[in-house]
Structure formats: structure tokens, C-alpha cells
Amino acid sequence: MLPGLVYGSAILLQAVLIFFFYNYYQLIIINLVGWGLLVLFLIIGALPRNEFKKKGGSEKGKSFLSTTKLVTTGIYSVIRHPYWLSWILLSLSLALMSQHWLIVFLGILASSFVYGETFLLDKRLIQKFGNDYSVYKKRVPRLNLVYGLLKKAITRNPL
Fold it and tell me: Is the separation of the CB atoms in 141 and 75 below 8 Å?
């Protein structure tokens, strides 16, 4: 509960403060990288919903997040926690778009807490899905999108 309050507040504060400190040091390239990460946040944040709806086995009328089956296809064949990665990308993109020390600090704080949440989530998913999740966990990286894509390309497994 407390970690969610911390990272949620930090990201919300970043989003508000960017209106006051946008491109603070006028570093155009860094600002553009921030915009690119914002686009990546939108893409990666949208992909899990589709996979969960198709493969997650959620009951009718319940949230797509209340899965009954382990999903290991699509984005989940590349990284285990795409939602959490998307929040880290959002926080990083806001820091790069602003370049202000306070927004950068909030981004580091939020990202640290989000990263920590993935360890707790792994424990809960092992409890929920047992050995299947443990095997999946060994095969697919937690948040490293680049490594996950490279590993996917080398093993030539389709998404």
C-alpha cells in the first residue's frame, strides 16, 4: 500500500511539475528522447491489456487484470512486467522532458519503488501459478526490454 502511494504520488507530482519546468535547460535532444520514451510508454502500456483479454481467462464482468491463466505470449514473451516498465518509462520520459532536478529526483524515487514492486509481484505470481511461473521467470527477463527482444530474436520465437 505504502509503495503504491509513494510511486503514484511521485509520478503524479512529476506530471504536474512538468508544466512549470518543461525543457528547463533547453536541451533539445534530451527533450526529444523524453518524448520518444513517452511514446514507448503508451505502446508498452497498451500491449498487456490485449494479451490478458485474449489469453488471461478472466471471468466475464471482471477486470482483464484478474487472470486465471498464466499469460506468456505477446509482450509477455519478451518481459514479465510490461505495465511496470511502462510506468518507469513514463517517469523517465517526464524527467528527460523537464531536465529539472526535482522532476529527475521524483523520477528516480518513483522508478525505484516501481522496480521494487516487481519483486513482490513475482512472489505473488509464484504463489498463484506455482512452478509454471517459476519456469517462465527463468526464461523471460523482469523488465529489460532490450535483452528480452534480443533473446527473442536469437531464439527465433515469434511474439
Answer: no
Q: Return the axis-axis angle of helices 82-98 and 28-55, rounded to nearest 10°.
A: 160
Between 101-129 and 131-139, two packed helices, what is the crossing angle to 10 degrees?
A: 140
Q: CB of 77 within 8 A of CB of 151?
A: no
Q: What is the rounded CA–CA span in Å between residue 56 and residue 51?
A: 7
Task: Yes or no: say if 79 and 140 are a contact pair by the CB < 8 Å rule.
Answer: yes
pLDDT band (50, 70, 90) for residue 129: very high
Contacts for 81 with CB less than 8 Å, ≥ 6 apart: 118, 121, 142, 143
pTM of the model: 0.91
Where does the pLDDT of residue 56 fall: very low under 50, low under 70, confident under 90, or very high at 90 and above?
Answer: confident
